[in-house]
Amino acid sequence: MIYTVTLNPAIDxxxxxxxxNLGHVNRSLFSRDDIGGKGINVAKVIKKLxxxxxxxxxxxxxxxxxxxxxxxxxxxxxDFIEVDGETRTNIKIxxxxxxxxxxxxxxxxxxxxxxLENLIKRIKSRVNSNDVVVLSGSLPKGLNVDTYKxxxxxLKEIGVKIILDAEGEALRKGIEAGPLLIKPNLNELKTIxxxxxxxxxxxxxxxxxxxxxxxxxxxMGEKGAILFNKDECFYxxxxxxxxxxxxxxxxSMVAAFAIGIHDNLPxxxxxxxxxxxxTAKVTKEGSxxxxxxxxxxxxxxxxxxxx
Length: 307
Ligand SMILES: Nc1ncnc2c1ncn2[C@@H]1O[C@H](COP(=O)(O)OP(=O)(O)O)[C@@H](O)[C@H]1O
Ligand SMILES: O=P(O)(O)OC[C@H]1O[C@](O)(COP(=O)(O)O)[C@@H](O)[C@@H]1O
Prior knowledge:
This is Tagatose-6-phosphate kinase. Pathway: Carbohydrate metabolism; D-tagatose 6-phosphate degradation; D-glyceraldehyde 3-phosphate and glycerone phosphate from D-tagatose 6-phosphate: step 1/2. Its EC number is 2.7.1.144. The chain is of the alpha/beta class and 307 residues long. The protein has a single domain (2-20, 29-306), classed as Ribokinase (UDP-N-acetylmuramoyl-L-alanine:D-glutamate ligase, 3-Layer(aba) Sandwich). The chain has helices at 38-48, 64-73, 113-126, 147-156, 168-176, 186-190, 199-210, 249-262, 267-282, 292-299, and strands at residues 2-6, 10-17, 30-36, 53-60, 77-83, 88-95, 100-104, 132-136, 161-165, 181-182, 215-219, 225-228, 233-236, 304-306. Helix 8 (249-262) runs antiparallel to helix 9 (267-282) and helix 9 crosses helix 10. The radius of gyration is 18 Å and the shape is globular. Bound molecules: adenosine-5'-diphosphate and 1,6-di-O-phosphono-beta-D-fructofuranose (FBP).
């Protein structure tokens, strides 16, 4: 089984404008709400690809019915711990004229170590060594930067395979505990290592992480993505598509790796699926997950280069 853990989920409110006029009244052309947050987006894509998944983590009690309803529409099995307050709403601004995407992510509800202990107990009671656990997204207020590190240490006692998708100190500390794979985008990578933008710069910057045995996938938006592990390095250039929203592109990649690790696929194959899934995602409005057929359509177009 694949489990996703979202400590700070979100309702993504996408607002499409011609162009954002700062300091003035702006009128939207179109808007939509999607259930999101990194782990939940991962779960949506895993489900669309026909795999079973359980979405875990925290949700705010005040609007939990809405969140459950949206997850139910995706057919996702969930097991969340409810905490006081609301699941946050994150604003995603799409400017059609510029083709520019701006995200405003809120802090979200507050939680504490007592809730975290309960969540870890809940996860440990469900998982076994054949399972994959995806830990992703920002930490809610009240949790320490070593939260992912602690979670990884505890889950590794059971032998589960762990993917971590975070940034800053939470990622840096999490890496110390040795997840199997991380997937920072270039900006997220720069929050933990000094790094330029060329493939050589990135390779040098991630070598300390890769040497620990952690497969590192660096996504670079419209410049494609690169995978490093101890034995291999693959690059994929992006596929040209009409981009509607980039929200959840990285999460779609993570979904593909979760499936690949769960099914023991070679990394090259998982990487290929991750590029297809993220390409299909960016063609969709808001943070809605692409359908399986849409992902498979792009799979044939992915070009992987061994570096
Ligand atoms: N403008 C784009 N055109 C084509 N593919 C894209 C575009 N933006 C993102 N992607 C695809 O999505 C992947 C992840 O995007 P990225 O923005 O790096 O991740 P994140 O959502 O984590 O910030 C890219 O490696 C690429 O495959
Ligand atoms: O937890 P964070 O870092 O605030 O990110 C939350 C946001 O990330 C998303 O999961 C999208 O992530 P990606 O674009 O990195 O795939 C949104 O659904 C959500 O609003």
